[in-house]
Amino acid sequence: MATVLVTCSCGWQISSFIIVVGALASTGHPGAVRAAEIQSERGAVEQCGAHSEAGMPECLAKMSYESSTALKHAEAQAIAALSKWDEDAKYVNFAKEKLKASSKAYEQYRDAQCAFASSLGGGAIGNALEMRRLSCLVGMNARRIKQLDADSSTLPAR
């Protein structure tokens, strides 16, 4: 890994390690994606910083969409893992209900948190505030995917 200093057109300066993107996970679902494949906020900005100023928002929007799709896959994988869980049906169903409630609450929290992150851009003009929001979405989705995977991968299967 190399240390990289990136200053994007939005005025952010980021010094961090390059985020390494993993290969597709072999989870039985052909389109399944794991958290290692999703960039962090800084990684997203670094990767999209290679684009022109006009292309950067589009790149972050694409990454945000991909991370949302990956999150939906992770939620489906968690439901599948719960369905195979070696536990009484009433506990399996209870856990599935709690996962659905958690997913709804997570979306509300993520949107509020990313609105806050965007507001930290202050009086920035143009797409800078939206780029802050999109990179926040990418990072938060990556962390949620990782948490879902960690929780559901420990369940003993029937």
Walk me through what this model shows:
With 158 residues, this protein is mainly α. It is 59% helix and 6% strand. The chain has helices at residues 41-48, 55-83, 89-119, 128-153, and strands at residues 3-7, 13-17. The chain has a two-stranded antiparallel ribbon with strand order 1-2. β1 (3-7) and β2 (13-17) form a beta hairpin. The longest helix is centred in the middle third of the chain and has 31 residues, at 89-119. The chain is elongated and about 55 Å long. It holds the Pfam family LprI. Residues 50-148 form the Lysozyme inhibitor LprI-like N-terminal domain. This is Lysozyme inhibitor LprI-like N-terminal domain-containing protein.
